[in-house]
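Narrative of accomplishments. A recurring question from our advisory board has been how the design workflow behaves on a single, concrete structure rather than in aggregate. To address it, we present the structure tokens for one chain from the evaluation set, followed by the sequence designed for it. No filtering or post-editing was applied between the two.
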């Protein structure tokens, strides 16, 4: 039990764990259980580092968003059309993923004319972002899917971004 959160971990049937919280009003333990409920509960605390980490982890809860972050790692910038080509998803879906990553301060955007470029947040101001990005890059460096994305991205980067955008419009 962690005193500062008021949550107890309980092992239920079949070895599954869930979390409970003591309710002062009913004088009973109530099940909190779901990770989203735990994150909402933890978000009440004033510790900004915990809030930052939970927001970052929520943003990275999707494979496509992890692939975007890993594609941007070690690169100065990528155009939206290059990211769309890499993921093979609809532009609106990729746009939503990029929005979520921007809200979590994992990536930054830069508009030049009609082109929008993205890069990893590298200002070093947000310690939580830097910690998670470092861990993610270290953990997934040898992943087969990430290596395949790097090969595909190499081919995509050889192509003209304007040609890629025209290709997206024809879809």
């Amino acid at each position: 039990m962690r005193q500062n959160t008021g949550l107890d971990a309980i092992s239920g049937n079949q070895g599954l764990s869930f979390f409970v919280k003591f309710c002062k009003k009913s004088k009973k333990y109530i099940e909190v259980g779901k990770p989203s409920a735990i994150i909402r509960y933890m978000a009440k605390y004033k510790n900004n580092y915990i809030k930052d980490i939970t927001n970052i982890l929520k943003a990275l809860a999707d494979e496509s968003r992890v692939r975007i972050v890993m594609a941007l790692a070690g690169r100065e910038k990528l155009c939206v059309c290059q990211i769309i080509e890499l993921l093979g998803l609809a532009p609106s879906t990729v746009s939503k993923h990029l929005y979520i990553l921007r809200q979590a301060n994992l990536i930054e955007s830069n508009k030049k004319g009609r082109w929008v470029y993205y890069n990893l947040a590298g200002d070093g101001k947000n310690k939580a972002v830097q910690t998670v990005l470092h861990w993610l890059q270290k953990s997934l460096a040898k992943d087969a899917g990430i290596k395949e994305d790097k090969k595909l991205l190499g081919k995509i980067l050889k192509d003209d971004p304007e040609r890629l955008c025209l290709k997206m419009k024809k879809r």
